[in-house]
UniProtKB/TrEMBL annotation:
Pfam families: DUF4351 (PF14261). Residues 260-301 form the DUF4351 domain. It comes from the Bacteria. It comes from Allochromatium humboldtianum. The lineage of its organism: Bacteria, Pseudomonadati, Pseudomonadota, Gammaproteobacteria, Chromatiales. InterPro entries: DUF4351 (IPR025587). This is DUF4351 domain-containing protein.
């Protein structure tokens, strides 16, 4: 049983698709360095990777599709003298699928045919079925045969204490994303999961990551590790207290700004609705831009004035 099934009655549904897509785009070099170091070493990182999402969608139209979390197509430059372009196709698979190897082969052949470039296919398996380990596709009939192999990483293997220690000791920030994914999948008890969530985020502060990096990785971990409402509120309070202790209110400031923005938007909508009811839609439209740009304190003043205003102009003078 996973954390998803154990707490499904209380916890919001975990969203693994969005964080993986964002993680691959934001931290693609780190992703390869951690999980596929031999591939990482062959790439010329002086040339920025190019993500080809639309092209991959076109290639995948009509192909067999299992339940996966994310797939990415990335154009990189090889480090060798040829400096050829290489397409890296990454599949992040969330559940066992009997024809997964065949699907990887289909994408490989379609990409090679479409672009005429070298294609490297990589698979990341995030499921909890230990026996599901596809790394090839083979087919043979009447003397004709196909043998296709692809590098595969099984995140469940990192649950082993020695492998987990590798993640704990790694200075690669993508290790935090991998640990968050693993704990979200294998931890049954919500209170324990809350502890892991705080521990992983605290590590970023301890390592002295920049505010930008902390907020980016926090977003990914927060997406992956979803807690029941009461525990999530408790986690937030613990995190805010920790930030206050360090005098680094990164998450606190961002979330408070989000709350204030939500209140501001709510009051602006209320004022526009009251203006429409009292003076008609044309008056509301005439003052809409001014209202939507106004600060919260100014909106409070206008909301008080509209109660006794005889004309729209008396509200905004």
């Amino acid at each position: 049983m996973t954390a998803d099934t154990a707490n499904s009655a209380e916890a919001p549904k975990s969203d693994y698709d969005s964080p993986w897509k964002e993680a691959l785009e934001r931290f693609f070099p780190e992703f390869l360095a951690l999980l596929f170091p031999a591939i990482h070493a062959r790439i010329d990182w002086r040339v920025p990777p190019e993500f080809l999402d639309k092209e991959l969608q076109q290639i995948g139209a009509g192909s067999p599709r299992g339940r996966r979390y994310a797939d990415k197509l990335v154009r990189v430059r090889a480090r060798d003298g040829r400096r050829i372009a290489v397409l890296i196709h990454v599949e992040v698979q969330g559940d066992p699928e009997s024809d997964f190897g065949e699907r990887m082969f289909v994408y490989q052949t379609r990409l090679r045919d479409r672009y005429g470039l070298e294609v490297v296919s990589l698979a990341v398996l995030t499921d909890t079925t230990a026996s599901f380990r596809p790394s090839q596709f083979r087919h043979r009939l009447w003397g004709c045969g196909i043998a296709f192999r692809f590098p595969m990483v099984k995140l469940l293997d990192y649950v082993d204490p020695n492998r987990w220690a590798e993640l704990e000791a790694s200075d690669n920030l993508f290790a935090l994303v991998v640990m968050a994914q693993i704990r979200a999948k294998v931890t049954d008890e919500a209170e324990t999961l809350k502890g892991w969530k705080f521990r992983l985020i605290r590590r970023m502060y301890e390592r002295g990551y920049s505010e930008t990096l902390i907020l980016q990785v926090f977003r990914l971990i927060d997406w992956m590790i979803r807690l029941p409402q009461a525990l999530e509120a408790d986690f937030r309070q613990t995190l805010y207290a920790y930030e206050e202790q360090l005098r680094m209110p990164y998450v606190t400031t961002v979330e408070q700004a989000g709350i204030e923005k939500g209140v501001q938007q709510g009051e602006a909508k209320t004022l526009l609705r009251q203006l429409t009811r009292k003076f008609g839609p044309e008056a509301a439209q005439r003052h809409r831009e001014r209202i939507e740009r106004a600060e919260l304190e100014q909106l409070d003043t206008w909301l008080d004035r509209i109660l006794t205003a005889d004309t729209p102009e008396t509200i905004f003078h």
